[in-house]
Amino acid sequence: MNEIKENFPLLAYNTFHVEAQTRYFIEFNDIPAILNFLSSEHAEIRPCFVLGGGSNVLFTKDFEGIILHPVIKGIEKTDEDGESVIIRAGSGEEWDNFVAYCVKNEWGGIENLSLIPGTVGASPVQNIGAYGVEAKDFIHRVEAIRIDDGKKITLTAQDCHFSYRDSIFKKDLKDRVIITHVNFRLNKKHHFVTSYPDVQKELNNYPETSLLTIRNAVIAIRRNKLPDPSVTGNAGSFFKNPVIDREKVASLRRFFPNMRGFESPDGSVKLSAAWLIEQCGYKGSKQGKAGTHKKQPLIIINKGGASGDQIYRFALKIQKTVMNHFGIRMEMEVNVL
Ligand code: EPU
């Protein structure tokens, strides 16, 4: 069995770069390592938490249980027809390396999701999304192992109950499975999604639209707008964009005529959390060693040496201010532990 580490530091395992430690920590390079662990007495340790790239988690204190860290690698084509390919990737693959590999092979679909930090295994959990594309549009099947009984299970995209930054892995299956592989159905015939104004504008700098130029455009936009987690601790958007029904938005717009939001076909409106936060005066603001990014206030940053608890308290303050000002609750997107 892989070695179980005790009182293990998590500084290098979270992109907020906060100090915390976990009572126990174990890494898995393959399925047998997981099964071995689950048949040992250590499988009983609770709480347990599956950690991918640590790019969507905030440790506010030491973790008293066991952290399970899959580092399963490998990308293979398992099926193909005239239109599409099925690509199976290990959950421990770096997400952006996976995107780069698919773009290089001319397999289309996830190029708009370039440069999102984290691992392949995390992509179905929060149904990562950017620039008009969500992971759910291309996830074919998710392979996992149940922690309770070590049984291998396979979920279809439908079984995953995907919605905006949400899935069954954040609800019924939370802390109950270890995702080992994700299978994607990608297109040989490409359908580019270039509807986002930022993407359209950036693509003007390139001679043609292709998987590679979209990838490069998205990378350029993200580099310009979002803080690099290897330099400035952050976990991307801290809150979800609140989804509100149309009538409520209409009544709010009587008081806030410029309130920014995007209508979806079902009649709901996704409000811009960045706008709500900015209106409350929090753009580029700080509280102690925590702050918001100067170009995108939805991103909370560690300005150097902040504790997870300080960051969390700042997030709560922002959440409360937006609630008092607009009567809108912004749900946290980051997993707070
Ligand atoms: N905006 C402001 N003030 C600002 C910045 C933005 O009012 O300071 C407004 C923009 O004008 C725009 C709206 O907010 O109308 C949306 O801004 P942006 O394009 O940056 O997208 P977002 O809704 O803030 C979402 C995702 C990002 C993803 C981008 C691009 C969520 C929670 N976040 O952000 O995902 O990269 O769209 O598609 O849905 C993440 O999940 O960690 C993440 C970074």
Which descriptors apply to this entry?
23% helix; 337 residues; Uridine Diphospho-n-acetylenolpyruvylglucosamine Reductase, domain 3; Uridine Diphospho-n-acetylenolpyruvylglucosamine Reductase, domain 1; 5-stranded antiparallel β-sheet; binds uridine-diphosphate-2(N-acetylglucosaminyl) butyric acid; alpha+beta; Uridine Diphospho-n-acetylenolpyruvylglucosamine Reductase, domain 2
Could you explain the architecture of this structure?
This protein has about 325 residues and is an alpha+beta fold. It has three domains: about 5-70, Uridine Diphospho-n-acetylenolpyruvylglucosamine Reductase, domain 2 (2-Layer Sandwich), CATH 3.30.43.10; about 75-185, 2-Layer Sandwich (Uridine Diphospho-n-acetylenolpyruvylglucosamine Reductase, domain 3); about 235-335, Alpha-Beta Complex (Uridine Diphospho-n-acetylenolpyruvylglucosamine Reductase, domain 1). The chain contains seven helices and 20 strands. A hairpin with a 5-residue loop joins strand 10 (about 140-145) and strand 11. Helix 3 (about 195-205) packs across helix 4. The model has no long low-confidence stretch (mean pLDDT about 95). Bound molecules: uridine-diphosphate-2(N-acetylglucosaminyl) butyric acid (EPU). Uridine-diphosphate-2(N-acetylglucosaminyl) butyric acid binds next to strand 13 and helix 6.
